[in-house]
Amino acid sequence: MLPKIWPVTCHTDQVGPGSTFVAVTGKYEHGVNYILPAIELGATKIVVETGTGLSPEILAKLLELNIELIEVSNCRQSLSNLSAAAWGYPAKKLKIIAVTGTKGKTTSVYSLKHLLSNAGYKTAMLTGVHNIIDQAVYDAPLTTPHPDYLQMFFAQCIAQDVAYVVMEAAAQAFSLHRLDDVEFSAAIFTNLEQEHAEFYNDINQYFAAKCQIFKHMRLQAPVIFNRDNNWCVKALELAKSLNLNCKTFSFNSCSSVDYLIELQQDGAAGLKFNFTNTQKSVESLARRSLGVGRENINFIVPKLWGKFNCYNLAGVIACLDSLGLDLAQIKQNLLTLQPAPGRSERYELPNGASAIIDYAHTPSSFEALLSLLRQLTKHLIVVFGASGDRDKLKRPLMGKIAAQIADQIIITTDNPRTEDAKLIEQAVYAGVLPVNLAKVLLEPDRASAIALAVKISHPGSMIAILGKGPDEYQIFGREKTFFSDRQEVLKSTNLN
Predict the structure, then answer these.
(1) Is the domain of 417 the same as that of 310?
(2) What is d(CA 213, CA 169) in angstroms, rounded to the nearest whole number?
(3) Does some domain include residue 82?
(4) Which of 172, 165, 182 lies closest to 144 in space, CA to CA?
(5) 3 state SS of 85
(6) CA quadruple 488, 428, 391, 307: dihedral positive or negative?
(7) Do 165 and 191 have their domain in common?
(8) Most confidently modeled of 96-100, 192-196, 292-296?
């Protein structure tokens, strides 16, 4: 079990006798509103930003109980610094591998966890799906948690003799100082495309946030880049200017690539690809173990499909090879690799159709996954929506792509949050070309949309249910209620 009370925290759920409470300003609420509850729970130090106005009631309580008030220039930064110090700087004692990029983070992290664990290393994992220490599974609060949680988590890893921590590093985690006191022993930059327009003014600002990862690399720590992504190439140039230990992988042969990949099989039977280590250095582990000039290994991954997953695995293999793991052992362990929850999860339905649940929620991920499914069926149905309070630019693009590729699309809800669900639906619908409008059905209730997709399916049909993946909730306004695409699929099979 993870400890409930923390020495430093920004949330009253973790405050106890002797805690330091940091009053962080959130999107909807200010931490100052929770100072009195924190004091009641036993907080002995309160941290606020300089110039924060405190009510007479708070000031009186601080004076009455002799509680120390600390003023800082940035509460988020201080939350990280104070948490790391309180837990004894546990991140310094761990080997932490970070995965950043727009897509592929979760699959890459799950793959790293599987391969490291099966190579005999005690491994922990931080993702937006689950957090894991060895075999113990915990709920994930965020893609990259707040620093008070992170430092607590790292301390538990130390206590349990964990060797490696693999984690997703979101752009906002750098922008909001969640990773200020964390250094990485390796990193993978998967790709980058337009995303999070609700947080960043443009893609250049988003890119700059991602590139903050370079400030967190330990000396000679390998940084792996997807050379086939233009933004990754730009990031690679920046990393080289900082004298980082850069490694690249690509599906396109060129003189400067370190790892060359050739996709040989992709479909329902899984992936098969050739992985060539082109490095000339005698330091290469693969050179020593295989005794050849250009190492050439065929990897088979029965449970994953899609070139996008081949890219994810190439980055993972390149990373682990750079860290000295045995490629032959990696090859063996990839045979048992399972998809990450909510990533191309496949269910066979009683009527002979298949349902695919996937987290795809960007135009390029729609195109990649749906193009693959298009090759596997003559009847493709897509159920999806778009999230509220998130990037609005991609909504019509997803509608356009889905309608171009599929035989039938059902536009529904996907966490409207504080936006009008009907307006989101209309924005998605607006992207559909006139020639494809006959393919479109509108069903705002997501459960009913999934049931409708099952109802109109038949033997050989594929139903792609996109956007939520493993998430088990819907958010209307600020209220989060239970909802599971997987459970709705299983429930809807009774309709046929």
Answers:
(1) no
(2) 8
(3) no
(4) 172
(5) helix
(6) positive
(7) yes
(8) 96-100
| Residue 100 shares a structural domain with residue 197 | yes
* Number of residues written out for the chain: 496
Q: What is the CATH number of the domain that holds 50?
A: 3.40.1390.10
In the chain, the largest separation of any two C-alpha atoms, in whole Å, equals 75
Q: Domain containing 22: what range?
A: 8-73
Look at residue 420 and tell me if it is in a domain. Answer: yes
User: Do both 465 and 488 map to the same domain?
Assistant: yes
Please say which residue of 47, 73, 99 terminates a domain.
73
Q: What is the pLDDT of residues 300-322, one digit of tens each?
A: 999 999 999 999 999 999 999 99
pLDDT at residue 281, rounded to an integer: 42
pLDDT tens for each residue of 353-384: 999 999 999 998 999 999 999 999 999 999 99
How many CA atoms lie within 13 Å of 343's alpha carbon, on the beta-carbon side? 25
The pLDDT value recorded for residue 25 is 87
Distances (CA, A) of 261 to 140, 302, 304, 392: 33, 17, 16, 35
Instruction: Return mean pLDDT, the chain.
Output: 93
Q: How confident is the model at residue 74 (pLDDT cuts 50, 70, 90)?
A: very high
Q: Which residues have CB under 8 Å from 404's CB, separation 6+? A: 433, 436
> Structurally, how many domains does the chain consist of?
3
* Residue 73, pLDDT score: 97
Looking at residue 421, which CATH number applies to its domain?
3.90.190.20
In the structure, what pLDDT confidence band is assigned to residue 299 with cuts at 50, 70 and 90? Answer: very high
Task: Kindly report the backbone phi and psi dihedral angles of residue 115, in degrees, each rounded to the nearest multiple of 5, phi listed first.
Answer: -70, -40
Residue range 204-232: mean pLDDT, rounded = 97
Instruction: List pLDDT tens digits, range 333-358.
Output: 999 999 999 898 999 999 999 999 99
CA distance 266 to 243: 37
Separation CA 256–CA 258 (nearest Å):
7
- Tell me the CATH number at 126: 3.40.1190.10
- Sign for the pseudo-dihedral over CA of 416, 468, 114, 4: positive
Report if residue 79 sits inside a domain: no
Residues 297 and 431 in one domain: no
Give the angle 484-489-493 at the CA atoms, nearest 5°: 150
